């Protein structure tokens, strides 16, 4: 995944779509387990 400004490359283990309580819970649990997580609010 490239960011527009700096052209950095990110390695993600989980992409969470949505911003509800279940999405936040999944993201928090994954981060606590050491995953790199990105969230996209739909």
TrEMBL record:
Sorted alphabetically, which InterPro entries does this protein's record hold? Answer: FAD/NAD-bd_sf (IPR036188)
**Can you say what this protein is called?**
FAD-dependent oxidoreductase 2 FAD binding domain-containing protein
Which species? Answer: Candidatus Methanoperedens nitratireducens
């Amino acid at each position: 995944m490239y960011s527009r400004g700096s052209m950095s490359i990110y390695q993600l283990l989980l992409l969470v779509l949505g911003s509800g309580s279940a999405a936040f819970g999944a993201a928090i649990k994954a981060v606590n387990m050491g995953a790199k997580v990105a969230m996209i609010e739909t």
